Amino acid sequence: DAGVTQSPTHLIKTRGQHVTLRCSPISGHKSVSWYQQVLGQGPQFIFQYYEKEERGRGNFPDRFSARQFPNYSSELNVNALLLGDSALYLCASSGGQGEETQYFGPGTRLLVL
Amino acid sequence: GNSVTQMEGPVTLSEEAFLTINCTYTATGYPSLFWYVQYPGEGLQLLLKATKADDKGSNKGFEATYRKETTSFHLEKGSVQVSDSAVYFCALRMNTGFQKLVFGTGTRLLVSP
């Protein structure tokens, strides 16, 4: 089975622009979480979605938003990009709301100039 | 709040040396604990996990034991290989509410032949 897939792999934007990142979970997984990993640091939680509903949100500004589709894939949107948004954005999927392990995709590397 | 503290790197070892990477946590309650590994240019891979006190997680020669009394989850391997060179992240997840992973800052391991 395919693992978690993310697209695009790399992206370059300029300040003030908008970006959409996409994630497809492992087949059968209903929960998707997004994390931001700034260079040299550990990943920071942004959102979790389960069955198309937001279940948790980290300490990120309203410029960050996300949604989950009926097929459980997900999009992360970031508006009004800042230089500090440059990071590796990781998507993780898990089976549901219980104590399931999260499996990560390869990430999208975003560079804001 | 909940947090994870890892030893700072890089940890530099020769092939076949013994590895220990320290990880301690602070949590209100009893979290599940994880070690993830990140190879250059890639996302995170789950290495091992433990869900309750005294559990030992193991995989690919790596081991870690959940120590409630010392709030620790140190990663060990008896004989490292060059291919183990990567960044290792310790993480916790509370078993109530949504599945937010809290990561440490990561420890880079460099193994030389």
Q: Outline the low-pLDDT stretches of chain A.
A: none
Low-confidence residue ranges of chain B: none
| Protein chain pair with the most extensive contact, residues per chain | A-B, 30 and 25 residues
Biggest pleated sheet of chain A: 7 strands, mixed
Distance between the termini of chain A: 37 Å
Head-to-tail CA distance between termini of chain B: 41 Å
**Strand portion of chain B:** over 45%
Radius of gyration of chain A from CA coordinates: 13 Å
**CA-based shape of chain A:** globular
Number of helices of chain A: 0
| Strands of chain A, total number | 11
What number is the mean pLDDT of chain B? 93
| Most strands sheet of chain B | 6 strands, mixed
Oligomer: heterodimer
The general outline of chain B is globular
From N to C, what is the helix and strand string of chain A?
EEEEEEEEEEE
Sheet-strand content of chain A, in percent, reads over 45%
Mean pLDDT of chain A: 93
User: How would you spell out the order of helices and strands of chain B?
Assistant: EEEEEEEEEEEE
How many β-strand runs of chain B? Answer: 12
- Contiguous helical run count of chain B: 0
Molecular structure report:
The complex is a heterodimer of chains A (113) and B (113). With 113 residues, chain A is mostly beta strands. Chain A has strands at residues 5-7, 10-13, 19-24, 31-37, 44-50, 53-57, 64-68, 74-78, 87-94, 103-104, 108-112. Chain A is globular and about 40 Å long. In chain A, 37% of the residues are buried. Helix content of chain B is 0%, strand content 50%. Chain B has no helices and twelve strands. Chain B has strands at residues 3-6, 11-14, 19-21, 23-26, 32-38, 44-50, 56-59, 62-65, 75-77, 86-93, 101-103, 107-112. In chain B, β5 (32-38) and β6 (44-50) form a beta hairpin. The A-B interface holds A 4, 6, 31, 33, 35, 40-45, 48, 50, 55-56, 58, 88, 90, 92, 94, 97, 99-107 and B 4, 32, 34, 36, 42-46, 49, 51, 89, 91, 93, 95, 97-106.
